[in-house]
Specification:
binds adenosine-5'-diphosphate, six-stranded mixed sheet, 10 helices, Rossmann fold, single chain, Alpha-Beta Plaits, 316 residues, 31% helix, 14 strands, alpha/beta
Length: 316
């Protein structure tokens, strides 16, 4: 059988949550095009509310898209929903472990649900790989939070899918456990499993992913190999505290500015394009008296500012 070039392909994907009595209509995905290459460790990055979970839930069949097409492992989710879903394992954000099953039973039930015949189940192999072999017969409610999370990964892999999706896998997970989890994920990837992970930790994505898509307000604002993206993340902040605290961020020619609660403001600049010197010149040009000044490395928020404004300014 020919393997697809892309593990996941979304084209013009739109999701609109209808208005309710208390909330207006919400366009969570505004025409997302995304191609996730087979064999990648792909990071889906974005702040809270960007649309990451919505995207994952559509893939998992938990949420109905409004329009657009999605193929998982070459299988259209409208035309071949069962085949498409069989190609992915999803580790959800929330731990949803049945307290009355042992890990072994939990994996057997899951495999049964996917129609994996008993002879082909890999229950003990999975439990061992995730450091749960000695807990195979414990009740799930006796497991620690970290163990439960690893059990969720094992559950997602019972039907041996070629694509594994991890939704915020390390939120609230300690360092040691994180290392274990990643060791296993990297091992799976070496064996050919495509990994998609959502996170809002830039560092984590940087370390693990060979490709990163940044999603913001339902739109993909960047999608490229991590090394290329990092070269674009050449932004720095200059924090300027004026003599008189400001009520609004000042307009500086050629720079993004953001007001801070203490009346100072941050100026974001691209290291490849301008310098602290030029930032200061722009501040002086509007006649502002500077009380103090400092610089800091950008956070994800700044990266978004830089990327979204770059997108807006790019010629059509
Ligand atoms: P992320 O996973 O990146 O934090 P989500 O996909 O959860 O983002 O949310 C994207 C947007 O859609 C948010 O504004 C969120 O409030 C909204 N949203 C998510 N789920 C629902 C829902 N079931 N009903 C209405 N709006 C929703």
């Amino acid at each position: 059988m020919d393997l697809p070039d892309y593990a996941i392909e979304a084209e013009g994907l739109v999701k609109t949550y209808p208005a309710t009595k208390t909330t207006p209509e919400m366009r969570a995905l505004k025409g997302v095009d995304l191609k996730i290459p087979r064999g990648a460790i792909f990071g889906l990055l974005g702040p809270n509310g960007a649309g990451k979970s919505t995207f994952i839930n559509i893939l998992a069949g938990l949420c109905k898209k409004t329009s657009g097409t999605v193929r998982i492992w070459g299988r259209d989710i409208d035309e071949r929903p069962r085949d498409a879903r069989a190609a992915i394992g999803v580790v959800p954000q929330e731990i949803a472990a049945d307290p009355f099953f042992t890990p072994r039973e939990s994996l057997e039930v899951q495999a049964g649900m996917y129609g994996v015949p008993p002879g082909e189940r890999r229950t003990m192999e999975l439990l061992e790989a995730l450091g749960l072999a000695d807990k195979a017969s414990a009740y799930v409610r006796q497991l620690s939070g970290g163990m439960k999370r690893r059990l969720m990964v094992a559950k997602a892999m019972t039907h041996n899918p070629p694509v594994l999706i991890l939704d915020e896998p390390t939120a609230g997970v300690d360092v040691e456990l994180r290392r274990q989890l990643w060791a296993y994920v990297l091992e799976l990837n070496r064996k050919g499993v495509t990994i998609v992970l959502t996170t809002h930790y830039l560092e984590e994505a940087q370390e693990l992913c060979d490709q990163i898509a940044i999603v913001n307000r339902g739109e993909v604002v960047a999608c490229e190999p991590t090394t290329t993206l990092l070269r674009r993340l050449d932004t720095r902040n200059v924090i300027v505290l004026p003599e008189e605290p400001l009520a609004a961020a000042p307009q500086l020619a050629g720079f993004e500015t953001r007001l801070r609660p203490d009346g100072s403001f941050a100026v974001t600049y691209r290291t490849g394009q301008s310098s602290v010197e030029q930032v200061l010149a722009a501040v002086r040009a509007i006649g502002l008296h500077i009380k103090d000044i400092s610089t800091e490395d950008p956070d994800l928020e700044d990266v978004f500012v830089a990327l979204t404004t770059a997108t807006e300014k790019a010629p059509a």
